[in-house]
Amino acid sequence: MAGEPGEAAGPEERAPSPAPAPLLQQSRDFLDLFWGIAKPDQEARLAATAALGDALRSAPREAELQYALKRLIEGLGATREAARPGFSLALSQVLQALEDVPLQGVLEQIREKHDLQRKKLFRSAAFGNFFGVLALFQSGRLVKDPKALVACVQLLQSLAQHRNHLQDLPRRTLVDIVAEIPEPVFEEVLLGVLQADLAAAFSTPEQLQLLLVGLQKFPATTPTSGSFSLTCFSRLVEVLQAAAKSVKKEKVLPPVGLDLLRVALQEGAFELFWKGVVEKGLLEEHSGPGSYTAFRLLGSVLPLLSLEQLQVVLRGEVMRRYGDHVLSAQLPSRFKFAPEMEKYVDSFLEGCPDPEKQLAVLVAFSSLTNQGYPVVPSLWPVVRHLQPEALERYCKWLRDMFLRPDLGRCLEFSTSRQKKTASVFRFRKWLIQRLSSIVENAQVAKDEAFVMGIARFCFFHSFFETKKPSKDIPESEQQVSVPLDMSGLTRVCSASLLQTLNSLPLLGEAPKTAPGPPRGKANHGVTADGRLWAQHLVQYAALLLSHGKHVRPVRPFTAAGADEPQWVEVMVEILLSLLAQPSRLMRQVCRSVFARVCPHLNRRALQLILDVLDPDQEDDGAVVVTEEPGRKKGPDSSEDSGSEEDSEGSEEDSLDEGSDGEVDSGFRQRLMSVLQAGKALVNGQSSEEELDDDAMLALDARLASLFAEQKLRAQARRREKDQARKEKSLRCDFKIKVLDLVEGFLTKQPENPLVLELVEPLLAVIERSMSRDSAKQEQDFLRKTADIFTNQLCRAKQYCRSVADQAEELHVVLERLVEQAGRQADSAVALYHFSASLYLLRVLKGNMPKPPAPLGMWAPRPHPPPPSQGSSCLDLARVTRLYAEALTGFLSKRNSPFTAAMFVDLFTRHPVICQQLMPVVLPFITTGARPYHQAQACLLLLKALQMRELKQALEGPAWQELIGDSLRQTTESLRAVGKAVNKSAHLKMFKALELLVFLIKTAATAALAALQTLRQSDHLGTTGRLSDLTWQALKLLGVPRPKEEKVKVAENKGAPEEPGSRKRKKGFLPDTKKRSKRRLGEPAAPVDGEDPGNATQGTKRKRKRKKRARQQQPPLGPGVNGTGQGSGPPSGTPSPRASQTKDPEPKAVVNGDAQSPAPGSSGSKRKLRGGKRKNGLEAAPAATPLQKKARLPPPGTPSGPKARRKKLGPEGSAK
């Protein structure tokens, strides 16, 4: 069976086999191949098919072949869709490999197995017959067997009637068979069989395609009676409409459509077919499938047409309808055909080697416009396939259309709701964007000359105009037929072009002499000679400015003066003009371009930026800020919808003004005149006479005219106010964008000396903005300015280090900043001035003075000392006097803009100044203007004393003197304090007590360190009185005397063993007590290699040396009654452990000999039994001496009653 049981085969296949014996004789591997053919995985099916072919080809046996054919034929009608093509392919491979298998017999088996007469299994039978014929056709042997070929064609014709199951598969297979057979076979075998189908060609798309294939393959044999005559156009349109609807879901071109195009070209009736069938047929019904089929025919026919035919098709109705579709398909829910058309054009340009055809197609699509704007995008990737000649000619066409726009040559269309008008400005805008996109496209083959030509063209016509042609400027020789709208072109062209040039990769290879980029950075925005594209462009601008007789700038450059402006100044002018336009794109462009330009910035270019931010030049009108035309407005700002509301609002304002305030005197006089002329008012009072109807009507008319005139005046005033408000908003927005340039300069060039030129202008902006009430937009401007000034300038990690020549000027600016800070009424403004002074102080301190010039050629150059040795440009005495005056004013004046945080920042950042200002701060602890000032003096002194740098600078007596003066001033200040009745007095007490606590801790720490040093030294001697006095002083400072601990001195195991120290055996005398048996006059034997003559003297000398070493050994610390215990650790280090400082444990000695360890020691635990010896001596060991050791707590151990109550461990620490 084919496939899995019950799934891969139909009910008929599951019937029991009449001869099961051959199945049982097959191998398991061979049977598994049929299961693999039915698997859903295509790779598995192909592998099983190849394995089956190899198995039958290598060892062909009749039983296996018959079984394989049976299984494959059964699988043709399997219920699984993936199994049917697998068995069909496997059957075709088997028939192709084994040519001795007759096709007619296989076809008979297929018909017999899949009988079409069985109604219940008709669907499986239909698929079985179809895939069986397909297998015979794919085997390649069907052409060689005419009978089988005719039988297969007839079977396909019968299957074509059952479209419910097979759809158009039989007809398409029939077309494929006709396309593959040779002409003699078609004429002799199939022509008679297909005669009925060829006669009914206009009935279905499949039959028409069969006729078209026959006409293409066998034009002389296939019968036709004028396929493209006028009488058959309607029938062709019907067939194409049906074919378009049949592939509506697939969104592809029906195969019959492409065959119709080929036959029409073959018969020379293409134009007749295009106009009669496509333009007047498919497009007439305005249906979706028909229109999309026409568009697909247009895209598919491009490679088949000649140049003349391309021009006819690309300017016809199909192109107009395509443009209308692109315009209407911009809604989100509409189907968009533009991506598919782009693929057609891209494929054509890629495969077309003729530049003429390429240019014709690209120009035709670029000329399809709606109100002057082309429907294809300006950034169209298809240009990457253009030949160099076609690309050059296309760019020339773009430039010519920009200079002399001829909209009559464009294929203009408009929708039913649009007016038939064309805009030259829209067309020029698209042309400039297309030129810029060609430069931007990295896949377009171009060189530097080509890019520079486009850049010069766009730049010239954006900022300059021609007065008289010049040969030196080729762009001036090109005449402009329609005047340019420069305000729009400046916004549209230069932004995208500068952005493109700034990120343009290197074109070609750079010469070896050109400077390369830094390591790790790509070559972007530079030419082959290493210069920036922007620099080339600005040099071109300088060239244009130098030819004032021939060209003139549209907007005058402020940098132009007596001297010729440098290129960077012109570039800054261009960037400022671009920033004046309300566009986010231009803001990004200017930021990226300025990042490349800022290393070359000079003083005049920087001044151009600062002039925009200068508050004194707001009303000069140096920079014109324009509002973007066509910008979408909100419902509240719509002029058309809000005109009536404005009039009503102005009228209400006038009424409110008349009720709440004084009415305009001019309007009052005019009203009085009208009333008096109408006799409604006499001598300023109402007239008692009654007016007739005519007089009343005349008076009403005059009053209505008067009030209407007053209403218009009110509207005009309100309009002026709105315009002024808009201009102010645009100007503020422009300034915010200019701050991007300032921020970029500070970020990229923090070490540039020009950074110092930004200090005072930014302070002026901050001071001016904080001195007046501002709206939200101005608050944003102030916030951004303050952030840049504080974070990017004053607190920058890097600063200028090459201002040695400007030291005097910087000192003057520093003095001016501090003086301005002292004159401010607001502390917030004073803080910015003070921070600026600290920044300049940092710059002066970090710069080296200019070294003197050497006396001669060979004179050695002096090495500048480090900054810590006073080698900076800072005049310390001058700066100290400046800040001392400021500090005195802060602590003595009742209302001072300075704050304590300012001077704390000064002390922290510049400890040298802090050391000089300490004598200024100390007296104000008691002599401050108010308790608040005294509290601030305490705070400043506390912050200064806590600085490590100040303590290191004032080591020794100077530091002690400062601490003593501070103690005296603080205690005197506290004595003078009464009851804290107000907040200032409370603050003073609080700060004074904080300072006093710190001073006491500092003095106590110094005293404690001195006592510890004294205690651990040997100056106390061996007397206990000095040690007790030392501990009494330590107790006053909070360090208690540790408890004494009794420690038994144990035996020192590490001591060298002396002769005779071994434990003697019981009942025997020691060796030293034994009488030596030696001959008279013979010396005693030497001990342990000792000199025999000096044995006794050497032993005595060793004992004396050990005794002297024990006496000279320094003590561990003061013990009981001043006894020492060994050398102690240095001051400030933890005490060593007891095991590391314990003396060697003495051993019990009997008669001068070392014996076993004493009881309780670390020696042997064996009991020593006392007994009488022969010499009468007692062997009992001597008593172990006891020692009292005083343990000191390590530094940092808490002291006090609670700490003393803690039980101390063996190492002096709490358990």
From TrEMBL:
<dbReference type="GO" id="GO:0043565">
    <property type="term" value="F:sequence-specific DNA binding"/>
</dbReference>
<dbReference type="GO" id="GO:0003723">
    <property type="term" value="F:RNA binding"/>
</dbReference>
<feature type="compositionally biased region" description="Basic and acidic residues">
    <location>
        <begin position="1044"/>
        <end position="1061"/>
    </location>
</feature>
<feature type="region of interest" description="Disordered">
    <location>
        <begin position="622"/>
        <end position="663"/>
    </location>
</feature>
<comment type="similarity">
    <text>Belongs to the MYBBP1A family.</text>
</comment>
<dbReference type="Pfam" id="PF04931">
    <property type="entry name" value="DNA_pol_phi"/>
</dbReference>
<feature type="region of interest" description="Disordered">
    <location>
        <begin position="1"/>
        <end position="22"/>
    </location>
</feature>
<keyword id="KW-0539">Nucleus</keyword>
<protein>
    <recommendedName>
        <fullName>MYB binding protein 1a</fullName>
    </recommendedName>
</protein>
<feature type="compositionally biased region" description="Basic residues">
    <location>
        <begin position="1099"/>
        <end position="1110"/>
    </location>
</feature>
<dbReference type="GO" id="GO:0003714">
    <property type="term" value="F:transcription corepressor activity"/>
</dbReference>
<feature type="region of interest" description="Disordered">
    <location>
        <begin position="1044"/>
        <end position="1215"/>
    </location>
</feature>
<feature type="compositionally biased region" description="Gly residues">
    <location>
        <begin position="1119"/>
        <end position="1129"/>
    </location>
</feature>
<feature type="compositionally biased region" description="Basic residues">
    <location>
        <begin position="1164"/>
        <end position="1174"/>
    </location>
</feature>
<feature type="compositionally biased region" description="Acidic residues">
    <location>
        <begin position="637"/>
        <end position="663"/>
    </location>
</feature>
<dbReference type="GO" id="GO:0005730">
    <property type="term" value="C:nucleolus"/>
</dbReference>
<dbReference type="InterPro" id="IPR007015">
    <property type="entry name" value="DNA_pol_V/MYBBP1A"/>
</dbReference>
<dbReference type="InterPro" id="IPR016024">
    <property type="entry name" value="ARM-type_fold"/>
</dbReference>
